[in-house]
Protein 1
Amino acid sequence: KTDKVHSISDYLYKKSLRLGLSKDVFYRKITPAIDIKQFRVKDNQGNIGNKIRILTIGRLNWIKDYETAISAMKILKEKGIDFIERNKTKPFFLTLSFNAPHDPFQVPKKYYNRIQTETDSVRRVYSGMIEALDDAVGSVLKKLEQEGLTDNCLIFLISDNGGATYTRATDNAPLRGGKATHFDGGISVPFFVKYPNGVKARGTYSHPVSSLDIFSTIAAVSGAAMAADRAYDGVNLLPYLTNDSVLPHQDFFWRSGYSKAFRRGDWKLYVNEKNKITYLFNIAEDREEKDNLSA
């Protein structure tokens, strides 16, 4: 039995790395006091969308100008760039958990106007939020490049879940399902890794991996010693990214309440206990999960 939960920042802190954690806007300890307020946006400020949530963590407001739903993303971008500037001569660990795209769907007009081919207003706002996210990520990567840090920097970019199809703003075609489901549309997400000094550039890595692998990969690259009194579900991905003949994982497990799934190799079992439905798919032959082989 292990009583203490360790985060990757705990291990890196022991290695004397400078820590930048977006959840507490770059202080090491995260306060649990979170207050969420909602109010309608002033249309005369040039924003397209519905409601905005103001997140107050402890005594610190993430969103200071209250006039755009992507203010938190803008602040995180600026804080990230400032963190890099202050720590560019020392090893550091920075995580930026951008809040978009997510409800409430709202975006400044300059991003809304970039989307010229979408006629659905909800999808257009959502696409504009992705444009804003792309700009924010690009600004942080540009700062790394300007400081000559890119080659020796391990970068991950990942989504937390598949698109929320119930919002009508997105879909995950050709994958089935979306957020809050265990179909692959809900659990298969974009996952990018860039580490010029550690991994040669390649196209697509086709074997399944897990977001849990980020923990173990960072620990390995930084030389952080992980506690030996527990098992780790994630693996260091770097050896696998250069060797397609070995799988990083054979088994995967997911569970959320009455919904659970298990994958071994190309086979995936999905059980919905509430609706008493069982699915069995061969992912290699049926990526879209159309043919239920459980009968």
Protein 2
Amino acid sequence: RRGRAPTSLSSSLDAFGQVRLDWQTGVGAAAFRLYRSTGPISVLAGLAPRTAASPFLDSPDADGTYHYVVTALDAAGNESLLSNSTSILYDKAAPRIQISGVSDAAYYRSSIFPAFSASDANIDPQSVRALLDGAPFVSGSTVSAEGIHTLSVTAADLEDHASTASIRFTLDRIAPTFTVTGVVEGQTLLSSTVIHINVVELNPGASSFLLVNHTLGSTVAYRPGEAILRNGFYTLLAESSDRAGNAAQAGLSFRLDSAPVAPPGLAARLEGGSARLSWQKPEPEVVSYRVYR
């Protein structure tokens, strides 16, 4: 069964600019829940309760008119009906700063146009200012310079409540590039080789490398620094992207023509009084063999 609702709920501003809420507790109440909204309260759906005791101090994070109600809980956790409602105009919060057109810690590959504004019940329009990398910045202006940037916005109201917001972002128009050592385009190598690939990029993202052996008809993922042992005509393909979304692809072709590997599977059997030898062809381009006894 619902207990009695708290009575005589009232609101006021204390000497420190906080909302003070007082109510009569009644008999049998074990605890209280406070509800706040920016509109009149008739039902509690969608409102988050806060455990409270009279007197209760509240400091909203934005100016506006706030409405409050209180309920009582008995020892079994049953919640009472709503108290009377009280409302108050609160104008002691610092301005709320909004920054659009750019996100904190984001990367961009083209010019951007950051915009900012501040809202408050008694905002001082002259106080709303911004600095981009330490220089005055006008809302909506173009940012096109490569590099890391910091945008800081400040605002105050007529009672000198001030706030600051800062974001940091990066403008990167340049796609990754590659430096390759161990082989050059069109080269014929006479022994096994190791290829090293360096991705040149200030804000690296993902990279992948493929090694295509056209002679063997194989394509495998290649990890730079791995030895390439099998003969054949190769194409090395590299792809990379950075955090801003710039992407690059590159490829080079070369041939490996070293001494073939030993034929595997050598076997001998007696046939007609002679030894018959057999083995597997080690590579497609092998055209003759030497047999030693």
